[in-house]
Design goal:
Elements (H helix, E strand, L loop, with lengths): L5 E5 L7 H20 L4 E6 L2 E6 L3 H11 L3 E6 L4 E4 L1 H6 L4 H4 L4 H4 L5 H11 L4 E8 L5 E13 L2 E10 L1 H60 L5 H28 L8 H16 L2 E6 L7 H22 L3 E9 L2 E8 L15 H12 L3 E6 L5 E8 L10
Parallel strand pairs: 1-2, 9-10
Antiparallel strand pairs: 2-3, 4-5, 4-8, 6-7, 7-8, 10-11, 11-13, 12-13
Helix pairs in contact: 7-8, 7-11, 9-10, 10-11
The structure holds adenosine-5'-triphosphate (ATP) and magnesium ion.
Length: about 400
């Protein structure tokens, strides 16, 4: 114990003038501050000319310094939630001095809206350790979000609660920025999807109408030519016939491409589009399809388009990855939501596989539903098949943005 660390303190105060009293008080405050920050490890009390040394060393002293220096706020609350002790970090969180925080009720330090939360936490903390988040009300009226960790404490025969408060303002700011950026990305995704659907619809129409009509005209002209050529021009007639066959197969290709871009049947409604898609899928893959349409309700075009695209992506996955022999699709209404459930009896997959974080197909389905305030749930396990369920509320919470 070094001499310079001793702090003399008179044991008995004689009758004092106001100025002396203020000086003594500020000296006492300075001593307390020094004890808290660990600058002092003993107090020398002057008792009628005789000095008595009270040492602050030992575990108590170490802990005091540790609590005082930590980055978190620390406080001890009595059973009626009065602050009995706190470190200066806790007082700093509140923008107040230690003296004014000690003796305050914890409820007065927390934003009134968060009182029910704090009440519940304090009640639980009387029994066992618990954690929660509240907003402290600083002296300047600014709110400070803190994470509280509370533990029940016994001080002799009295019960108390020990509280550690961590400043969450940085985390909250980062969370807010992340939310804003996620919102921007979602808006961008919605815009891109909408542009893509419009583009597909336009190209599909042009391919179907312009190319289809021109080829039909070519076919008719070839028929006209063939009708006027004398039979003896057998070679030329043969060439015309093969050109007509070529035009026919081109017309088929155009129809297929136009339908793949955007099936016209989607304009008739989701039920018709799903039915058509399932027939087409069964014919193409040989996988047995069962369809249960439990609602005939007509939904907004953006809802129908989103569900149809989710169905298409899911069926593509079934054909590509599942080795399934059966697919069942159910379309139904649940309160104000339309539900599309697609189940296959294939080999399933491990949803915890880290490689899936790179999978854009599943992500795209989730994004499509989320843009319309809905969601997609995928449940699968190796050997157990896969079920994709999409819920979308209707009428759509947003203006119909995807044709
Ligand atoms: N019905 C299914 N049965 C078995 N495995 C599936 C099924 N659906 C998805 N998977 C697994 O999940 C993975 C991710 O699917 P996702 O659709 O996201 O990607 P992908 O089909 O591989 O590629 P793309 O981005 O072209 O869609 C697939 O690679 C496959 O391993
Ligand atoms: Mg896929």
């Amino acid at each position: 114990m070094a001499d310079r660390k001793k702090k003399p303190l008179p044991a008995k105060l004689p009758a004092l003038s106001r100025r002396e009293l203020v000086a003594r008080l500020s000296e006492a405050e300075e001593t307390l501050r020094a004890i808290r920050s660990g600058e002092v490890d003993a107090i020398v009390v002057d008792r009628q000319g005789e000095e008595k040394v009270f040492t602050l060393q030992g575990a108590d002293h170490t802990y005091r310094v540790f609590v005082e220096r930590m980055n978190e706020g620390a406080a001890v609350l009595s059973s009626d939630h009065t602050v009995l002790h706190c470190n200066s970090r806790f007082a700093r969180f509140l923008g107040a001095g230690l003296q004014s925080v000690i003796g305050s009720s914890m409820l007065d330090l927390v934003w009134p809206e968060d009182h029910p939360k704090l009440d519940a936490l304090l009640r639980r903390a009387a029994q066992k350790n618990c954690r929660g988040e509240v907003r402290l009300q600083t002296r300047k009226g600014v709110l400070l979000s803190v994470h509280l960790s509370l533990n029940p404490l016994r001080l002799g025969s009295t019960r108390a609660v020990c509280l550690i408060a961590s400043d969450l303002s940085e985390t909250k700011r980062a969370e807010q920025e992340l939310r804003a950026s996620a919102e921007q990305l979602r808006n961008l995704a919605a815009h891109l999807l909408s542009v893509r659907e419009e583009e597909r619809a336009r190209i599909s129409r042009q391919v179907h109408d312009e190319l289809g009509q021109s080829l039909t005209a070519v076919k008719m002209d070839l028929a006209w030519l063939a009708g006027r050529l004398p039979q003896k021009n057998a070679q030329m007639l043969k060439r015309i016939r093969t050109t007509r066959q070529l035009a026919d197969s081109l017309i088929q290709s155009i129809r297929r491409i136009s339908t793949e871009l955007r099936p016209a049947v989607l304009d008739l409604g989701l039920a018709e589009a799903v039915e058509w898609q399932m027939q087409e899928f069964q014919a193409r893959t040989g996988i047995h399809c069962k369809l249960r349409l439990l609602t005939q309700e007509v939904f907004a075009p953006d809802v129908s388009t989103a569900l149809f695209r989710i169905l298409q992506e899911t069926l593509t996955n079934v054909a590509r990855h599942s080795k399934a022999t059966r697919v069942e699709v159910v379309k139904q209404k649940q309160r104000d939501r339309v539900v599309l459930r697609i189940h296959d009896n294939g080999r399933g997959f491990d949803q915890e596989d880290p490689a899936l974080s790179q999978s854009l197909g599943l992500l795209g389905m989730r994004e499509r539903a989320a843009i319309l305030g809905g969601r997609v749930n995928i449940s699968s396990a190796p050997g157990k098949g896969t079920t994709v369920t999409a819920w979308i509320p209707f009428p759509s919470p947003k203006e119909s943005s995807i044709p």
